[in-house]
């Protein structure tokens, strides 16, 4: 063990050694140590270069507070629950302060066009935002929009309204409950907005996937070649007459 540690440290420090290791265990340990050091240093060096070279994108806002401080015009669809809450909110509240910089109309295609050119931001529900991102990706094959990480409201429920005393309501509730337990509505919804997941996973600080930091998976081939070479070497030691070593 001491001989292996000594030889490994000598290799890493660039010092000469009096002799090469002859035992198989010493060779394997030294080789694994050197290979691990190579991989760790390469991954660290590539990530460090990526942090220093790639530009860092500074988002104009990432929460409601930052949106109000930036004073960016914000589209809120007229007649929606969000618009109604904003109009009825106290002046000193976040929604009340948003009222002074809000833009409201009912032309959704126009709102998407002006959002694309950067004329305003959009304050909308999660389902609406995901649908818009999915549609834009289908048309342009790109993800020019981003969503703020901090949400303003929690999850809101979606319900089906029936008249009071509707006789089929218990049966419909039972069917819907079973569908929700199996996750079928969520699966269907995610299928319809499948491009949203790709846009949410994109790294906005990375220009493209052609240039990226090295990952551990990039060295799996090196591990395979090293393991194959050690296996051949051990096979030659065990069966010298068969392998010719």
From TrEMBL:
Membrane protein topology class: Multi-pass membrane protein
A single GO cellular-component term on record: plasma membrane
Gene Ontology biological process terms in this record: detection of stimulus involved in sensory perception
Keywords associated with the record: Cell membrane, Glycoprotein, Membrane, Receptor, Transmembrane, Transmembrane helix
One Pfam family named in its UniProt record: Lig_chan
Domain Ionotropic glutamate receptor C-terminal: from-to ranges: 2-229
Highest taxon of source: Eukaryota
Location of the protein in the cell: Cell membrane
InterPro entries xrefs: Insect_Ionotropic_Sensory_Rcpt (IPR052192), Iontro_rcpt_C (IPR001320)
MF terms in GO: ligand-gated monoatomic ion channel activity
Keyword Transmembrane (UniProt): yes
PANTHER family in alphabetical order: IONOTROPIC RECEPTOR 20A-RELATED, IONOTROPIC RECEPTOR 60A
Family classification: Belongs to the glutamate-gated ion channel (TC 1.A.10.1) family.
Protein name per its UniProtKB record: Variant Ionotropic Glutamate Receptor
Species for this entry: Penaeus vannamei
């Amino acid at each position: 063990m001491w001989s292996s540690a000594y030889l490994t440290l000598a290799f890493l420090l660039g010092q000469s050694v009096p002799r090469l290791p002859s035992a198989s265990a010493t060779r394997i340990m030294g080789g694994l140590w050197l290979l691990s050091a190579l991989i760790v240093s390469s991954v660290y060096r590539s990530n460090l270069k990526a942090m220093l070279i790639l530009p860092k994108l500074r988002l104009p806002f990432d929460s409601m507070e930052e949106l109000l401080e930036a004073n960016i015009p914000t589209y809120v669809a007229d007649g929606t629950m969000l618009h109604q809450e904003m109009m009825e909110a106290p002046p000193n509240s976040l929604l009340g302060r948003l009222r002074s910089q809000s833009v409201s109309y009912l032309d959704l295609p126009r709102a998407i066009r002006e959002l694309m050119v950067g004329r305003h931001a959009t304050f909308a529900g999660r389902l609406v935002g995901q649908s818009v991102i999915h549609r834009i990706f289908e048309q342009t094959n790109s993800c020019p929009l981003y969503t703020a990480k901090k949400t303003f409201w929690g999850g809101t429920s979606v319900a089906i309204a029936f008249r009071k005393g509707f006789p089929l309501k218990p049966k419909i509730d039972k069917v819907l409950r079973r569908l929700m337990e199996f996750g079928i509505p969520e699966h269907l919804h995610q299928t319809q907005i499948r491009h949203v997941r790709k846009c949410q996973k994109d790294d906005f600080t990375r220009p493209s996937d052609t240039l990226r930091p090295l990952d551990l998976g990039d060295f799996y081939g090196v591990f395979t070649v090293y393991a194959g070479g050690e296996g051949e070497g051990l096979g030659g030691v065990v069966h010298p007459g068969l392998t010719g070593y």
